[in-house]
Design brief:
The complex is a heterodimer of chains A (about 1300) and B (about 290). With about 1300 residues, chain A is α/β, with parallel strands linked by helices. Chain A has 31 helices and 51 strands. In chain A, strands 9-10-11-13-12-14-15-16-17 form a 9-stranded mixed β-sheet, with helices on both faces. In chain A, α25 (about 1135-1150) crosses α26 (about 1165-1180). Chain A is globular. Chain A starts with a helix and ends with a helix. With about 290 residues, chain B is mostly beta strands. Residues about 1-35 of chain B have low confidence and may be disordered. The chains are: A alpha/beta (about 1300), B mainly beta (about 290).
């Protein structure tokens, strides 16, 4: 279940949030007609134009002529350094046929480390052109020749001390007039260095919950820009900071020009304006840490240009920054930057004008160079640079970049961009931030009802008590604000006054049709006491089917405000006559026939640079008019042989483009740029504004025809791929992507299900009347007017592309979400379209307070819906539980392999002491020919010391099998690796296995701490002193069957932390019933959810501290959990986690009226297995236990030196300035092998011999320490898993032992 | 003569009801324990009631015969059975039947109420295969809870012993889960011509719904004695006979420790035995 939820969370959150595009205001330009020319496209051999040392610098030059005559002449290149000194040049003759193409390859000699300008010059009969590019060589080793001052950090330490002496006086003032939708805006004021008032705009999501701590994004301004409130926030807070001299922080420093800003106080490093600027940035972080509603452990800083500089410099100055990203950060290495361009030229002019020594300015700037700050950046960082940046030389950027210690950094290089970065960086950063800050996990934790209830008493965000406003919050009778036509439209409005005096006046409402016609209004007097609240009800007369705009207005002598909302009536009855052309269906049938004639030429290219933990491919195909369409495909890495993944195709919004998605297990994610969008713009490349009108005069040429066929071709692509399941295709998109998803679902029955967020292009004709100023009709009508086109004729064309006309052909299950305030897809038209969909399985989400956006409820619905409809989870399971057997079967079915199937003489590949180790190895030849070659085997110790090898010639008939017997002499106690290899010329393969010898005598070399038992006795006493305050709250919403009753258990555990668990009981239990208890403990990072199972047991799923819904106080990142507090064994997280289990047993024993306390079965896998055995060791109330792949055993062994979790410990040791040895010594108090001798109950343990996380040697060290009754299940061919059979076995075992049949 | 005739058939019916009671117990236990250990210090109680009726019999050649004077026999029986787990492997079994036999004919009607043969035994769970299939052995002492008189014979009236081997468990087939139980038992009564009896029962069942189970059983019994006679006119029950019967049963869970069962049994062949059918109701409770 939990994996399923993880799959859902990552995938659908990004679909819902990361991919929603905004349709910006349209400017009015039309591309100029192309003249005759030769188009030069250069391609560096390296995608980033960065070459290795001693590499030849290779470029391919594609020339495409639009001339009607042959062009002859020469093509050359010239390489210079950044001071324009010529390094090498070359030219060669070139001839290009009329309308022809030509490709030229240049091999530029290797260059020393550095950046170089390269110009490619074409001089032919009628054309001269130059393409200017930059390439780098050996950039990772670049260091600045200019040293940072020795007292750089002393200077900044003092600056921070100065800042600390300034009282911050944080003030937060709500800005209701700026707030809209889900965005609550606040003005934040604070005192910074020099006691200057600095201001920032804080955006908090309106749907935040009490007690929720929001991750924060801090945005810093670029040069010459002002920060304004940020909108569209979801799941996090946004702080837009205006540093001194910028925006609304200009009280004291308010330079006449922005250029003047850079020189303020440059005479001395202590007076320089940037000292204060940097402290402003630090103060903003102080502000975040001062609140109880912002998450000080999840701070993302970002910006571009100056903002990029500020974000990286702040990350260097302040370790509280969690992650950082910077686009084209400024001032990386001032002395390495050109004096001819900003900002150095400004500083130079200033020094000339004021007679200041320029060198003195530079000496000031030495304290402000980014390369200095970079040395202290410890958080993960992403930086993007453009090699053609005219302000910032790439060599300077690299000097700063290479100064960042550690490896947790990623650099985006855009060879063809100047002072900007490409879209892919933005896309990557978006996903990266959400992953790193766990934004979705945190959001979901607080938007589950139980978490909200748990936090109900937590503090609410601080607001300025001095602000005088009357807040209006409206409540429709139902959440979706959809009413019936035979009942009044009932609203209640909450009024909350912060005035210090009674406010008297009136509150009114007015209802308008979408066309603006007033259909109802009314008012009533209102009087609100000082700081009081009031509730007012309105019963608006019943209205006919349709959507309505609704304004609530408050008017008192001192305050006026209007709240704008919308409601709907009988949405299922909103219908309209269509304008479907008679030949609509034939038109599209013809389009599909045209497409069928175009050979698709599918191409798939792996893109390793774009991977997260998945495989990302660029996909390419030919579509209508032979236009090349490109996109991406993301697949899980561990795709099993024969596995066919259900497919999600995400279709692009207007002016959007395909971006590589982060793959989810169990589903392939595909998206494309349709024609004319970036990546697919080789032939058609309209301006953003012109896209919608491209060839609109002719329905056969109109761009949307090709666009829809591009989507169709993508479905063709899906059907062509062996790893994709063409019977399970999910099409989705937002805005234009929503339109494409629905239209595709109508056109192509291969689409299994579809969803659309705010789909556009429904009923162009009505749009032209009702929304002629909004996109798309605003753009289309302007185009018609400017080009003398007849609008009626255009509308005739658009009828063929109208979503209203596609809708009646949508039979696949469909979900649509719309915003009632959407100006681009008015709700009436969207609903009319939706009502035309004949599919019976359809659902409409209506969001009354949203515009071109949808609420998170829809994402939450769609996730499980898609998984259910496409049966993703079961399909995934089918390929992930059958392990090796399936692989063998699959391999056996292939025709080009020799399959190695091993049969150890003992089923578990475990041999007794002094016996020969024997294997029979079957070699199955799947070739349709006889093969000859060699069979070999190699034996190593578990620490890879070679022991033995042998080989023999083999000859296997076509499709035959040969059995080879392997005897290995007696070995000493331990585990050994054995590799079986076959090489038959055309084919070779190796099968890796592990066997054990005399494993019951494997022992640890590391002693148990002398005070281990005392440590745990003391810990239990500490727990006993904490009042448990057990609480059981029924949670009917968590029940999935009518026979069960689910409770949330809450209790106080060690450190007085609140720990939660889920209890599932049979509903029809009797007062005298006492149930055996099944306790499941969580794996690493897993959030436990209620268990559902057999009717005669009580099931408890415990979330130990820091996991699931027990993350109130301790909520480490997943990777941090294992090291959290390890510098002090008394504070280590597992000390509490183990006690959480003990406290749960306290809970069971405190409820003997429910539980049979003689029958307590505890179980878990991996970390859950560890916790299970720890619990059974420290608390003998456990009756029985079972542990699968339990870990954390003898981590001091050399095996773990460079592996998890030691790698985490190493980082943590650096972070906490303690030694790794200290951490490992502390961990000995949590070493599982030291616990288990205390177990008294019966134990079952399951292990995999190929487990890389917990090698079998460690498992046996632990297992052999158990003195109680025990049983071991060994799976020789499994890794960190056990056979699913063990799951049913353990249940039956427990039922038997507990007499619970 | 007439009285004797009637009495013999009362007795005849009582014996059959005993067999039915055992089968009922088995069926109701299948609902929960299904032949698996009842559990340490746990008690299983089953209360059963059965209504048996017949008007024909198979003679010693297996030929169907009618009783004289249009005689119709019916029998209402009740039994209480229990299993108590001393440990995970060892449990104590006990059962007590009570029978009310009614005989109607053209010439007379009579009713006799009597306790039957009680049983007490010990079951030992020998082994299991992956906690799915259990093997057990059980030894029983059979003792009459009545005293035979010259006028009325209520049973053999002798002590007896039996030993029973059972295998029970569950398996999956065609994506459906089934449970089964196979019992083989032999009984030896004491006395001069005491019969040696063998019985084989095989049951299979599956869930029709979450709380509803269906089971089908076949039971074969053979009784051997040097006394071969079977005389409907004799008051003594037959000591040498054979029979085959089939049962269809439904079991319904009433919460977590209780179950209700309903079954129908009919004899399909036999020698020296009645041709009858019965409807049975059982109620199981686990403490």
């Amino acid at each position: 279940m939990k994996l399923k939820q993880q799959l859902l969370s990552v995938f659908f959150f990004f679909l819902a949030i990361g991919q929603t595009e905004t349709l910006l205001a349209q400017s009015k330009q039309k591309p100029a007609a192309a003249a005759e020319e030769i188009i030069i496209n250069e391609h560096a051999a390296d995608r980033n134009s960065i070459f290795k040392k001693d590499d030849t610098v290779k470029y391919k030059i594609d020339l495409r002529s639009t001339y009607n005559s042959q062009q002859s002449g020469k093509i050359s290149y010239a390489v210079t350094d950044f001071k324009n000194k010529l390094i090498t040049k070359y030219s060669q003759p070139v001839t290009i046929d009329a309308k022809g193409t030509k490709q030229v390859q240049f091999n530029i000699p290797s260059q020393p480390s550095g950046f170089y300008k390269v110009n490619f010059m074409l001089n032919v009969t009628d054309d001269d052109d130059t393409v200017r590019r930059v390439f780098g060589v050996d950039t990772t080793n670049m260091v600045s020749p200019y040293k940072m001052p020795d007292d750089f950090w002393d200077f900044w330490d003092n600056a921070r001390k100065e800042l600390a002496a300034v009282a911050p006086n944080f003030k937060v003032t709500p800005q209701p007039k700026l707030s809209k939708g889900n965005d609550d805006i606040f003005l934040v004021e604070m005192q910074s260095l020099g006691n200057m008032t600095i201001r920032a705009w804080l955006t908090l999501p309106h749907d935040r919950k009490p007690g929720e701590k929001l991750p924060v994004s801090i945005a810093y301004p670029g040069f010459n820009s002002e920060m304004y409130p940020h909108y569209g926030v979801s799941g996090m807070a946004f702080l837009a900071l205006n540093i001194r001299g910028y925006g609304n922080s200009r009280d004291v420093i308010h330079p006449a020009t922005h250029d003047a800003f850079i020189n303020i106080g440059v005479e001395d490093k202590n007076t320089y304006v940037f000292k204060g600027v940097m402290m402003d940035c630090v103060r903003a972080i102080d502000f975040i840490c001062s609140t109880d509603y912002l998450d000080s452990k999840a701070i993302f800083v970002t910006g571009g240009s100056l903002g990029g500089y500020l974000s990286m410099a702040t990350a260097g100055l302040d370790d509280r920054v969690t992650i950082c990203s910077a686009d084209n950060p400024g001032y990386p290495d001032i002395r390495a930057m050109s004096t001819e361009v900003f900002p150095i030229n400004t500083m130079k002019d200033y020094s000339l004008r004021t007679g200041l020594d320029f060198e003195k300015c530079l000496k000031t700037w030495d304290y402000y160079c980014l390369k200095g700050f970079a040395t202290h950046i410890k958080c993960p960082v992403i930086m993007g640079i453009g090699l053609l940046d005219n302000f910032i030389a790439p060599i300077a950027s690299m000097a700063a970049w290479n100064n960042i210690p550690g490896k947790n950094k990623k650099l985006f290089i855009f060879p063809n961009l100047a002072h900007e970065v490409g879209d892919e960086q933005g896309t990557y950063v978006g996903a990266w931030v959400y992953q790193k800050l766990k934004i979705y996990d945190k959001w979901i934790a607080f938007h589950k009802p139980e978490a909200a209830a748990a936090a109900a008493n937590a503090a609410k965000p601080v607001v300025d008590p001095n602000a005088e406003v009357i807040d209006l919050v409206e409540h429709p009778i139902n959440k979706s604000a959809v009413y019936k036509s035979d009942a009044p439209v009932t609203y209640t409005v909450d009024l909350k006054s912060s005035f210090k005096t009674t406010q008297t006046g009136k509150i009114s409402y007015a209802v308008f049709t979408p066309e603006g016609k007033l259909v109802a209004n009314g008012s009533q007097p209102v009087s609100i006491e000082a700081k009081g609240t009031k509730n007012v009800a309105f019963e608006i007369p019943a209205q006919g089917p349709g959507y309505y705009n609704l304004n609530f207005m408050i008017n008192t002598s001192k305050y006026d405000d209007t709240l704008r909302r919308a409601f709907a009536v009988d949405t299922n009855k909103i219908m309209a006559a269509g304008h479907k052309p008679a030949d609509f269906d034939e038109f599209w049938a013809g389009a599909k026939r045209e497409l069928a004639k175009v050979p698709p030429n599918f191409k798939v290219t792996e893109m390793p640079d774009m991977e997260h933990n998945d495989k990302v491919y660029q996909i390419e195909m030919q579509s209508l008019n032979n236009i090349t369409i490109r996109g991406y495909m993301a697949l899980q890495k561990d795709l099993k042989p024969g596995q066919r993944l259900p497919v999600s195709i995400y279709l692009p919004g207007y002016a959007a483009s395909a971006v590589p998605l982060v793959a989810s297990s169990g589903i392939a994610l595909l998206n494309i740029s349709v024609r004319g969008q970036m990546m697919s713009d080789d032939v058609i490349k309209p301006e953003r504004e012109a896209y919608i009108t491209t060839d609109i005069e002719n329905k056969n040429k109109y761009i949307l025809k090709g666009v829809l066929m591009d989507c169709e071709r993508l479905v063709d692509f899906v059907c062509s791929r062996p790893e994709l399941d063409s019977t399970a295709i999910y099409a989705s998109g937002a805005s234009m992507g929503g339109y494409l998803a629905l239209a595709l679902s109508a056109l192509d029955k291969r689409v299994t299900i579809s969803t659309a967020n705010n789909p556009v292009f429904a009923d162009f004709r009505t749009l032209s009347v009702q929304a002629s100023n909004a996109f798309p009709m605003g753009e289309i009508e302007l185009y018609a007017k400017n080009n003398g086109e007849n609008l009626d004729e255009i509308l005739n064309t658009l009828d063929y592309f109208d979503l209203q006309n596609f809708a009646p052909q949508i039979n696949a299950p469909t979900v649509v979400g719309i915003g009632m305030l959407d100006p681009m897809a008015p709700p009436t038209l969207s609903t009319t379209m939706f009502n035309s969909i004949p599919a019976t399985d359809k659902k409409l989400f209506v969001f009354p307070t949203l515009a071109h956006d949808i609420g998170p409820e829809m994402g939450a619905y769609i996730g499980p819906w898609v998984y259910k409809k496409l049966n993703i989870w079961n399909r995934y399971l089918a390929f992930n539980k059958q392990n090796e057997l399936d692989k063998v079967k699959e391999a056996e079915s292939g025709s080009e392999s020799v399959v190695i199937i091993d049969h150890p003489a003992t089923k578990e590949a475990v041999f007794k002491a002094n016996t020969t180790i024997s294997y029979d190895v079957d070699l199955k030849n799947n070739f349709f020919k006889k093969v000859d070659g060699m069979f070999s085997y190699f034996v190593y110790t578990s620490d890879d010391k070679f022991i033995k090898e042998d080989s023999s010639k083999i000859s296997i008939d076509s499709r035959g099998t040969k059995r080879v017997h392997v005897d290995i002499p007696t070995q000493k106690t331990g585990f050994y690796k054995i590799n079986f290899a076959v090489d038959v010329g055309d084919y070779d393969d190796t099968l890796r296995r592990v066997f054990g010898v005399d494993i019951e005598h494997i022992r640890s070399n590391y002693p148990k701490p002398a005070d281990f038992d005392q440590f745990w006795d003391r810990t239990k006493k500490e727990l006993a002193a904490v009042p448990p305050n057990f609480k059981m709250t029924e949670k009917p919403e968590m029940e999935i069957t009518p026979d069960e009753q689910v409770y949330l258990i809450e209790m106080q555990s060690l450190g007085n932390l609140t720990i939660r668990a889920w209890l599932t009981l049979p509903k029809d239990r009797k007062p005298k019933d006492r149930f055996p208890v099944f306790i499941n403990l969580p794996g690493y990072g897993n959030a436990m959810v209620p268990l559902h199972g057999a009717p005669n047991m009580a099931f408890i799923a415990l979330n130990v501290r820091g996991q699931g819904n027990s993350r109130d106080v301790i909520h480490p990142e997943r990777e941090e959990y294992i090291s959290y507090g390890l510098e002090d064994k008394d504070k280590f997280i597992y000390r509490g986690s183990i006690m959480d289990g003990v406290r749960l047993l306290d809970f069971v024993f405190a409820h003997k009226e429910i539980f049979d306390t003689q029958s307590i079965f505890v179980t878990g896998g991996s970390q859950g297995g560890y916790l299970t055995l720890c619990l059974a060791s420290v608390d003998h109330r456990v009756t029985l236990c079972e542990a699968e792949n339990p870990g954390y055993i003898d981590l001091k062994m050399p095996y773990y030196a460079n592996k998890w979790p030691t790698t985490v410990f190493t980082d943590y040791a650096d972070q906490k300035s303690v030694t790794l040895q200290k951490l490992l010594d502390n961990f000995e108090y949590f070493n599982l092998k030291n616990f288990v001798p205390n177990i008294q109950c019966k134990v079952i343990v399951g292990i995999g011999l190929l487990d890389p996380l917990v090698p079998p040697t460690n498992e046996m060290i632990m297992y052999n320490n158990i003195t109680a009754w025990k049983k071991l299940f060994i799976y020789p061919n499994l890794t960190h898993e056990v056979d699913p059979w063990l799951g049913s076995y353990k249940m039956k075992w427990a039922m038997d032992e507990l007499g619970a049949f | 003569m007439t009285i004797t005739f009637n009495t013999s058939h009362k007795q005849f019916t009582a014996i059959k009801c005993l067999a039915l009671g055992a089968l009922l117990l088995l069926l109701s236990m299948a609902t929960y324990a299904g032949g698996r250990p009842v559990g340490k210090h746990r008690l299983f109680i089953n209360i059963g009631a059965s209504y048996f009726f017949n008007h024909q019999f198979w003679d010693q050649n297996g030929q169907v015969q009618n009783y004289a004077f249009n005689e119709r026999n019916s029998s209402l029986s009740a039994s209480i059975s229990a299993e108590y787990g001393f440990s995970r492997r060892v449990s104590l079994m006990a059962s007590v039947p009570f029978v009310s036999n009614m005989v109607r004919s053209d010439i007379s009607n009579s009713t006799i109420n009597t306790l039957g043969d009680g049983q007490i035994g010990v079951r030992y769970y020998l082994a299991n295969i992956a906690y799915r299939t259990y093997f057990s052995i059980q030894g029983n002492l059979i003792f009459p809870l009545y005293v035979n008189t010259a006028a009325v014979t209520r049973g053999y009236g002798e002590l007896g012993s039996s030993i029973q081997l059972a295998a029970a468990g569950d398996f999956n087939m065609l994506s459906k889960s089934f449970f089964f139980e196979v019992d083989l038992s032999t009984s030896q009564y004491f006395g001069g011509d005491a019969p040696l009896q063998g019985q084989f029962t095989a049951s299979i069942g599956t869930s029709l719904a979450k709380k509803l189970q269906l089971s089908l059983s076949e039971s074969s019994a053979t009784s051997y004695s040097i006394t071969k006679t079977f005389n409907p006119a004799s008051p003594a029950p037959a000591k040498d006979y054979s029979s085959n019967e089939v049962t269809a049963g439904l079991s319904y869970g009433l919460g977590h420790s209780r179950s209700l069962s309903l079954s129908y049994t009919t004899f399909i062949s036999g020698k020296n035995t009645a041709i009858g059918s019965s409807v049975s109701l059982g109620y199981g409770y686990k403490f």
